[in-house]
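Notes to self after the call with IL:
- keep both proteins in one doc
- input above output, always
- annotate only the second one for now

Protein 1:
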Amino acid sequence: MSKTAYQDVERRFAEIVDLSSGVEILSWDQEVMMPPGGAETRAQTMATLQGVIHERMTSPDLVSTVRTAQRGRAKLTPRQRRGLELVRRSVDKATCVPADLARELSLAQSRGLEAWRVARTNSDFGAFVPALETIVDLVRRKAQLRAGKNGALYDALLDDYEPGMTTERLDELLDELEAITVPLVRKVVQSDVRVDVRPFVGKFKIDAQRDFARQVSEAMGIRFDQGRLDLSTHPFCGGTGPGDVRMTSRYDENDMRGGLFGVIHESGHGLYEQGRDPNKRRTPLGGAISMGIHESQSRLWENNVARGKPFWEAWYDRFIDAHPKLRKFDVDAIWRAANIVEPSMIRVEADELTYNLHIILRTRIERDLISGEIDVTDLPARWNESMQSMLGITPADDAEGVLQDIHWAMGAIGYFPTYSLGNLYAAQFMEAARSSIRGLDRKIAKGDMLTLRTWLADNIHRHDQTFTAEKIVKRVTGKPLGTEAFARHIRKKVKAIYG
């Protein structure tokens, strides 16, 4: 009976996956192709679909079937027990939230995206305030329902993106990261070394940037018969799984770092998606382990590979062919320019060292927002004060300040910490890869990135959610998640460039 019940759980869950895939493609279309006039219709459509998904996830039949399967879980295989646990967690989360609230939040998120896009274009935070106030209120209500009387609100939201992570553990890791980062930034700022950024900052044709970035993406192993690369206001990676991966980026003719490293970053996400097991896609085990693990893949390719000297040894000639005026710069100069440490306004374009300060800033702000310690109208002032305190710079306007990121408009509160967690996972995974693959850096210097891609797919991607994030990092690296590997990596790089 228990096995039959579990098979019924899988059948019902597969339909929910299909519906969620439809929402994913509509979300991609909203960001990439949808005309502005379709915003309200799309919001209603998305809200209806999310309502249907919520109804399926909380249906008495599914709840009853999950309970039946749980009673006989001893007869299930370890993978079935893991799949059942994942479904149970999803059902419990969904049943905490009334259907009306789920639909209302979906509607607010779709409307919020359009309000944010207009507000960002005009650098007018006031135009975004009503939409964001609605989103924050609804997300807070959802967190209260999930957390119960004694639970932490931010824990309930963090669990959506990094299951098993707690605010207490997160604080420990972020505090350690801040302690590692701040002294290094101070030393760099006080250093006499000046890095020439002209290999990336100047005037560069968008078509040449796009063609070169796509070449790198393909060499990393992205299959474009199973993926796309488009333009959007904010770079992201979406799609429906291994066979349909949707990546986006944006390009600036005056600074090619955002475009190039943005494509490499999203290609790291894309490789994770294309490396997943297609047979698991419609099962409870399908999907990424956590957003921290997902971000580790993009950050690993962006920072540990593409900002490394072996990468530029392999790609120097093709880079110069794309931008002939840069021929006067050698490999070392381009590598240094790719790794300049300089406090900057925009998170997605921040250097590898100061990036974590951007994440710490956002994490602390959104926690105070959800707890009610600050209001939405306080955000610009709090943001600017935090930027000045942590990075020593103040945004000129809200577009390069509080409006730069899409996450709050999406209702994705609790997401930001996963970027820094991704940096930590990435450093540990890269150390493990170097230990496992003899001469890995020499291979990369010769243009071979597929060996690393295969290692990542075998050790991480293909498992989908078979293991927890905690188990996968210990399984791959032999250690629990920590800051030590990242500290070794970033100190070595900063010392090599700044002495």
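Protein 2 (the one to annotate):
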Amino acid sequence: MGPLDFIHHLLNFIAPALGVGFLCALLGHFGPRPSGRRMPWWAQGAVNVGVGVAVLVGGLVVLGQDGRLATYAVLVLACGTSQWLVSGAWRG
């Protein structure tokens, strides 16, 4: 596999985390505003993408295959929980 093929495969591997992570961050700004300082949407998205990539790597290691539905379900739950934490919604 050449370097361009590797980059192509890597980007396709992390694409679901990018999509779900930044979508959660953008949609999180339409909800109620918690008091206190908030991270900018792009920083929240970056945290969500990091969590999402960790979930995808964990799913690949545990299940032995990329693209399993269970991994994507955990990805959505993890990014939603991460967005809840970084937006400060848990404070009330």
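Annotation: The CA atoms of residues 25 and 44 lie 6 Å apart. The mean pLDDT is 90.
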